[in-house]
Amino acid sequence: MMLIADGGSTKTTWCLVDAQGTRSFFDTEGYNPEFIGTAGIVASLRRSLPAALALPAVAQVHYYGASVVSAGQVATVADGMQAVFGQARVHVGHDLLAAARALLGRGPGFAAILGTGTNSCLYDGQRITHNVDSLGYFLGDEGSGAFIGKRLLRDYLRGLLPADLQAAFRAAYSLDRDEILDRLYNQPFPNRFVASFAKFASDHSSTSYCQALVKDSFEAFFQHIIAKYPGYQSQTFNCVGSVGYHFREALAEVAAAHGMAVGTIIRSPIEGLVAYHLENAG
Questions:
Q1: Which of 15, 108, 204, 258 is the most exposed place for a label (fewest CB within 10 A)?
Q2: H/E/C letters for each residue in the chain?
Q3: 2-99+270-279 — its CATH code?
Q4: Mean pLDDT of all residues in the chain?
Q5: What is the pLDDT of residue 7?
Q6: Cα separation of 186 and 199, whole Å?
Q7: Which residue has the higher pLDDT, 221 or 65?
Q8: Closest C-alpha among 102, 99, 100, 82 to residue 91
Q9: pLDDT per position as a tens digit, 169-185
């Protein structure tokens, strides 16, 4: 049996492929090594994996995750996976490579992620050839759920939301200033916390404030990241991630304004990843 995983900062989507090619999907939490260690990964997997999953029967694990870049980060995740799937060959890669493989297969092109965080690259059909660093949610991640959520939180705390949205936000979350700052500065996974408020922008997407917020976020994404790729206007914009998918109309508008044609925008790369690994098995 083979397990293929797309690991974001918030959620990991898994697909189990058995010897007959039958696919089973399930989710666990995300395993971003900037926020969780090997022991935490092991504990979460043992808590969250389906009870019916026969761990010794898993022969291969292909895990792609957020922030799995350096040798240390790869080891953090790989050690956790190996501890749980003891009989398997474990392969750990970056979620950006997952996006490129899911969107482009073995063809060259441009691929991006717009979810809790953001990332992007040029891909030659085998490897990532160019990447403009998103710098994470503290310094960058323009266009992401975290970027949108931070702006919403800032405007809410300063009373800058339109009155109806200010009231709706208060009613939806019942959070005061001290609770918000505690979640941001003292609690684990602050990136997930701020990104969770992108749903509010989606739920109120008919309002001019939320429309402007989302477009401004994507405008920053193109100005500060996409426009830094050489010859980016000759590429087709392809993207995975919940933020890109839910706000795809606004994203396509901003891309067109920057002279970049839109190709494929999907919510999750998992189906494309499964197809890639089945086509390239062995």
A1: 108
A2: CEEEEEECCCEEEEEEECCCCCEEEEEEECCCCCCCCHHHHHHHHHHHCCCCCCHHHCCEEEEEECCCCCHHHHHHHHHHHHHHCCCCEEEEEEHHHHHHHHHHCCCCEEEEEECCCEEEEEECCCCEEECCCCCHHHHCCCCCHHHHHHHHHHHHHCCCCCHHHHHHHHHHHCCCHHHHHHHHHCCCCHHHHHHCCHHHHHHCCCCHHHHHHHHHHHHHHHHHCHHHCCCHHHCEEEEECHHHHHCHHHHHHHHHHCCCEEEEEECCCHHHHHHHHHHCCC
A3: 3.30.420.40
A4: 90
A5: 85
A6: 23
A7: 221
A8: 82
A9: 999 998 999 999 999 89
Tokens of 75: 């080891």
Rounded to whole angstroms, the Cα distance separating 279 from 103 reads 14
Handedness of CA 269, 102, 3, 132 (dihedral sign): negative
Tell me the C-alpha distance between 119 and 123, whole Å.
13
**What are the angstrom distances between the C-alpha of 57 and each of 6, 16, 24, 26?**
20, 11, 15, 17
Residues 6+ apart with CB under 8 A from 27: 11, 12, 13, 14
Which strand ranges, in their side-by-side order, compose the sheet holding 236-240?
128-130, 118-123, 109-114, 236-240, 261-266
Mean pLDDT over 74-100 rounds to: 90
b/e per residue 252-271 (b: at least 16 CB within 10 A): bbbbeebebebbebbbbbbb
* Domain spans in the chain, listed from the N-terminal domain onward: 2-99+270-279
Cα–Cα distance, 22 to 208 (Å, whole number): 46
Does position 282 have pLDDT exceeding 60, yes or no?
no
β-sheet with 23-29: strand ranges across: 23-29, 11-17, 2-7, 60-65, 89-94
C-alpha 175/C-alpha 153 separation (Å) is 10
